[in-house]
## 1
Amino acid sequence: MKFRPSYRMSELVQSEIRNMSVECDKVSGINLSQGICDLPLPEILQDGIKEATRLGYNSYTRCDGIQYLREQIAKKALEYNHIKCDPDRNIVVSCGATGALYCTCYALFNPGDEIILFEPFYGYHEYTLVSLNLKPVYVKLIHESWKIDFDCLESAINPNTRAILISNPVNPCGKVFSIEELNKIGTLCEKYNLFLLSDEIYEYIVFDGKKHVSPASLPVLKDRTVTISGYSKTYSITGWRIGYSIAGGQLSELIGEVNDLFYVCAPSPAQYAVAKAIENLQDRFYMEICNSYKEKRDLLCDTLSRCGLYPFIPEGAYYILADVSVLPGKDSKEKCIYLLDETGIGTVPGDAFYSGSSGKDVLRFCFARDISVIQKACSLIIENSFKWGY
Ligand code: PLP
């Protein structure tokens, strides 16, 4: 049957992250494009999911999630994030952080509202805004140091601006926002009456003694932040779709309504198993995932610099942006395809993370893979680096 796609489709393009995963599969390459996170499932989650189905967690749940999970999230928010929240009023469990952000934007903004995004940005943040007819306004982080130019940030604000959207740590460059930066952002949010939407999905993955600070723990941002997070990355369960938002009571109620209408609820057995894991896993678990990611980051960064693919060392999350000017190709897509053809390693073109051409010499490498996969990828890069003169 012939059909005409909706007008919305013309605004959306297939994510470059998915595109490159497909290209990589075609050549049976090593996929360092997508944050697939194929690490072993912690035992408590394996057992928890079985227990959940046995206990009857197989039906729809309350639209904001089961009590047990909301209580565990509230406890963890207090202990880890220093955010005080009421499990009955402030938390909505959604289908991943992606679902939580979508519901939040749907509940808060009108078509044409402007939302500030720092560049480089996570593509799905941009698509979420665009799909709701919101206007992303891009503010570049200073290249390489990834510091904020606050004059530039303030000059991007106008009467249509409603919010600033950050990921902390940042996908793709691994920046971890300092408390000073967050306080300054808070002062601007207060001055111009803006929300801060803070996606903290990588909150447990920070390196080199850096501390994760949740904006909602700071007095200046407490009442104007929506905290978005989830367990896709922390527990390596990207397919389970468990995320959540923490917001003020009235807003949270609206987010819950949207969540109900769009998703009904997050997967029920997964909610139970995640609650069980939050309740039982000790600090040691979170320290170990961090240490294991650090080992992978260091190995990949060393290899990339030895081979002329200059990495910007990430402070958090599990991606490395690298300057690959040395590779042939007129833009990052061509350089990405070159690297895939010559080494069998899939990455993401830097242009996917910028609104203009600033990403043309950059590729993103994801290191959320088993250490043996990272080692294999490193060997392939080293073996083939003579092709680009190293
Ligand atoms: N937020 C950021 C910054 C991400 O990088 C990702 C995944 O790559 C997500 C959210 C997706 O989270 P979820 O699987 O909970 O939807």
Note: The chain has a mean pLDDT of 96.
## 2
Amino acid sequence: MIARISLDAVRERLFDYAVPAAIAAELKVGMRVQVPFGSRTCCGYVIECIAAAERPDIVMQPGLFGDEPATAKGRLRHIIAIDDPLPFFSPQLLQLLRWLAGYYCASMESALRSALPAPVRDGNTKARELLFVCATPQTEEHLKADSPSAIATQKLSARQRDLLQQITTRQGGLLNVLCRELKCAPETLRRLEKQGYLTIEPQQIRRDPLANRTIIPSSPLPLMPQQAAALQLICGGRHAVAADCGRAGLSETAADGCGEPSLPFKAVEPPVAAAAKAPLPVLLYGVTGSGKTEVYLQAIAHVLEQGGGAIVLVPEIALTPQTVRRFAGRFGDKIAVLHSALSEGERFDEWHRIRAGEAQVVVGPRSAVFAPVKNLALIIVDEEHEPSYKQDETPRYNARDVAVMRGWIEKCGVVLGSATPAMESWENVKNGKYRLARLALRAEERPMPTVEVIDMRIEGKRDGKPQIFSRRLIDTIEDRLATGEQVILFLNRRGYATSLLCTKCGFIAQCDSCSVAYTYHRTDSRLRCHICGACHPVPPLCPACSDPGFRYAGIGTQRIEIIAQTCFPKARIARLDADATTRKHSHDDILSAFRSGKTDILIGTQMIAKGHHFPNVTLVGVLMADAGLHIPDYRAGERTFQLLAQVSGRSGRGEIPGHVIIQTYTPDHPAIVASRTADFDSFATQERELRREAWLPPFSHVICLTFKGPDEEKVSFAANAFFKQLSPILPNGADCPEPMPSPLARAKGDYRYQMILRGSSIRSITRPLHKATRLAPPPQGVSLAIDVDALSIM
Ligand code: ADP
Ligand code: ZN
């Protein structure tokens, strides 16, 4: 037998190794093995096992261990050892990862790497073993039979008897904990061990990320009719799918992505027969506060009852302790959390609990889509439109689409939830690839908040000078403070001022290595680049004309905090953004203080826009709704609408109806007009027409190619050479304009050129792409990033 192995150390290809007879029976695909590579020993994963006869260049030669496979170059080398008796990847997961590598033009090695948490992969983290003290059965018997005489006769001191009694009552405990709490020395217990009263043995102790958290158990709520219908569609419709749905079970993106030869082997076609039983994914489109989470919880309870497991994907910034508590409150110990904020040991233990089947429900950010859940029956993608599901390094996968593909391969249910679905998912409902469940009302008949749009072109000029707060917003905030209600102020820009501008010569302080203006941070009086993190003191004079008249242009959350404090001197104000949360736990602290009413006004970036449930918030103010509209990206409108809907959804989630005030300089923009009524349907209808006319996703597939390097001429030359190879071999219906500088023309010292490749299917454009990569590979000093189904084209 021959094993095809992906080595940790080599990206480009797989390697074949002979399987020694001694381990042949044990070896399974997905296992981690040690193999010789050059003069070293290397770690790798078995991707497939094939018979020697399947490789025509192999002949069998007599060797040390009987007949062994060999090529013209000599005998194949042997696998040295199996690392772990359990596979790291199931055959289905391997199939998923092979698809992923093909679809996203990445190597198998990178796909495997992103599917395992680092502490599991690196081999340095181990299970934690601690000494556990336990009374022996005889001791327990003596004590239970209430025959202290039996022990007393054995010359034990009263103190020793007391210790044994306490340890028995506690049913044992960790050596260090017992010593601390019973105030005894370890030697005292060791002596009792020697005398046969106790056992002290190493035991694997789980590092539990929820250990010191108060989890309040919750029980299922009686569902509203719309929730019940959604649950029925998710759980009841498992086999209600037409037998010939074939590939319709896949999203647009996933459907035609059956792999391309970036891999050294033929990429797999998912078995079509399997599709017959795969249920169609459900798009759960429910307005904010409509109780989507309750539907998720009950759908999970349903699959658990049937012995299945579930994965819940949550956007990175919404994966707060509060979110985890909601799931842990319902499912307790069955929950495993995978999150990069956990310690290495916790991540290691959580992953192993999942693989061992000890945890059936996994909650995590995008990489949790690969969790080795046993009998996977349901994958939930909350806030499915979130761009954070896209990984911004190789492999640039979108976890939402990977979830749909995994659901198809494993024949399990997939639920995509959102109040503002992605245009792609909406299109998949329209063409019958997804089923739609709709929650049009808020839970408990709470009304949607009323939305008011303020035209800052008029309202923003009070007393003859530009103002950041409109009169209307100030009055409304004062009103809310007077009644003890809470306010959220939203601005999607951190820092104090967005740029430092010389009023005399127009000079704007820019990062030396990125083509963006510095952001002024007042807390430490520094200029920071939000792309590369560079940090400089503010120059005393304009570097261009030596004028001291620097002005802070644009606003950031820090400046809002200061202005708000002067406008509302009695209010307790807090700020939550990436700068406010560098201290460990402070993210959670700021949120809990707000939730418990210790702060009145919370100012923040998109970190406060999503997922939070603050029942006492009755006013949300959006300070500059246009901040994200004027960027050269066709998704700007969609993103703005989504963000406004999300942040508006934080208002009026309790007893008192909510109010939203949106300040804008472009009140007529479709994204802002639609936000007035939180009307996703009408926004989607307009946006869909624009996308159709411009042949943009979901009507086409986009691959963004970015050439990067420190030497601009070289980068531009490489991009043009590539373009010359690519453009003549593109099929009809595919489209690729000449390379040009990216909107973000320079980042971290690298010049960036981009090409936006479009086609009606991914397959039609990845083939010529691979060919061009072979014909005009980027030279030394230039790198090429391939972003399939790119979400951002900056
Ligand atoms: P979404 O995720 O759709 O924004 P949530 O799941 O956070 O909404 O629900 C909003 C609020 O409504 C929560 O406080 C939740 O407990 C409550 N809720 C949800 N479903 C019901 C129900 N069937 N009956 C009563 N309250 C509910
Ligand atoms: Zn920079």
Note: The CA atoms of residues 133 and 712 lie 66 Å apart.
